[in-house]
Design goal:
Layout (H helix, E strand, L loop, with lengths): L16 E7 L8 E5 L2 E7 L5 E5 L16 H4 L4 E2 L2 E3 L6 E2 L5 E3 L14 E2 L1 E4 L2 E6 L22 E2 L4 E6 L3 H5 L8 H5 L1 E12 L2 E10 L10 E8 L3 E7 L4 E11 L2 E11 L9 H27 L15 H9 L8 H8 L1 E7 L8
Antiparallel strand pairs: 1-11, 2-3, 3-4, 4-9, 5-6, 6-7, 7-8, 10-11, 12-19, 13-19, 14-15, 14-20, 15-16, 16-17, 17-18, 18-19
Helix pairs in contact: 5-6
The structure holds FE2/S2 (inorganic) cluster and fe (ii) ion.
């Protein structure tokens, strides 16, 4: 296992950004233990339905807020009251701002009795958390995932859990620049265009190629616009017989260990009529084909050694720039502009479109 330090990423062990931490259905009114960013955390829903994430250990004497089944507070269903969470040990209760708002046996509540809390947004059936090594407010907004989720004509995605990988997130994000793996891993053929565009905290991959099986007829091109907004998740708009939208998330559990998920939603009709069972089956088959394609990358990552320095050749695509871009999230926010200056811009790795110079 290689760590952020081994890759020379910067000052911080864990990056700044929005990260998937769970599917919406995994967070309930029963506090759930989680581990991300090398920290034990607890997620729960308040009575309003809002999801919260707090540190796992009570500031009073260190009890775990979710790993208990026998305390009478748990048996009596008093763990979540309103939007607050109560510790199973002595019953101190903490509000969604983290501050202790009740000690059952004392009027005196110390100011220091506070849990660390994290910004959380529930969107597109997923619980997202802002992680920031400097403890600052989100630097950019969580995106709206093409605004497709829940829209008429779109079949909502289900979440595919892909595993806890013994692999640092950088190796997953390397994929953005990886021109050479598309033919052997993903069955691409007849590439006409492959480029990356870096714009501050966003990196795009523009892709146009045929495919051995995914295209309807010989000579058809798959056209993909794929991008990261921050280090934690990929989005991809895929144009084809049916338009679809992919999300792939990678979230550090510990330094060098990464949890990965995949999801895909499909536009099955123009939205003027309800979605049929047949259309749902079609969307499920689309999602499964995309999951299987991503699983081909995952199998490589699960079994490879760490690549601290790629033995890169020019036709590989701009790994170096992706890794430079990625470093902005591992360093203080005020250093990000300098790092971005070194990666911003367009890099075309392959262009054989009619009229292009190489054609
Ligand atoms: S350890 Fe949590 S209330 Fe005492
Ligand atoms: Fe890939």
């Amino acid at each position: 296992m290689a760590t952020s330090k081994d890759y020379g990423l910067g000052e911080f062990q864990f990056p700044r950004g929005w990260f998937m931490i769970a599917g919406a259905g995994e967070v309930t009114s029963t506090p759930t233990p989680m581990r991300y960013f090398g920290q034990d955390l607890v997620a729960y829903r308040g009575e309003s339905g809002t999801a919260y994430v707090v540190e796992a250990y009570c500031p009073h004497m260190g009890a775990h807020l979710a790993k208990n089944t026998t305390s009478y507070i748990v048996r009596d269903n008093e763990q979540v009251q309103g939007e607050s969470i109560r510790c199973p040990f002595h019953g101190w209760r903490f509000g969604p701002d983290g501050a202790c708002n009740e000690v059952p046996y004392s009027k005196f509540v110390p100011k220091a009795a506070a849990l660390k809390t994290f910004p959380v947004i529930e969107r597109a059936g997923i619980i997202w958390m802002w992680h920031d090594p400097e403890g600052l407010e989100p630097e950019w907004d969580l995106p709206d995932f093409g605004n497709h989720y829940g829209e008429p004509g779109w079949v909502e995605w289900k979440i595919d859990y892909m595993g806890d990988l013994n692999c640092h997130g950088i190796e997953i994000v390397d994929n953005m620049a990886d021109f050479g793996h598309f033919v052997p891993i993903h069955g691409a053929k007849d590439f006409t265009y492959f480029a990356n565009e870096f714009t501050d905290h966003i990196v795009h991959q523009y892709y146009s190629a045929g495919h051995r099986t995914l295209t309807a007829s010989e000579g058809d091109q798959l056209v993909l616009d794929t991008w990261y907004e921050g280090p934690g998740f990929l989005q991809s708009e895929m144009a084809g017989e049916y338009d679809s939208f992919i999300m792939i998330a990678n979230t550090p559990i510990d330094d060098g260990i990464t949890r990965a998920w995949h999801a895909l939603m499909v536009n099955v009709n123009d939205g003027s009529k309800p979605i049929t069972d047949g259309e749902r089956e079609l969307a499920a088959a689309y999602q499964e084909a995309s999951r299987a394609a991503f699983a081909q990358d995952v199998e490589i990552w699960q079994n490879k050694r760490a690549c601290l320095n790629p033995l890169a050749i020019p036709n590989d695509g701009p790994y170096g720039k992706v890794r430079t871009w990625y470093r902005q999230f591992y360093n203080p926010r005020d250093q990000a502009p300098t790092i971005r200056q070194r990666s911003n811009g367009l890099v075309v790795t392959h262009d054989t479109r009619p009229g292009s110079q190489a054609a």
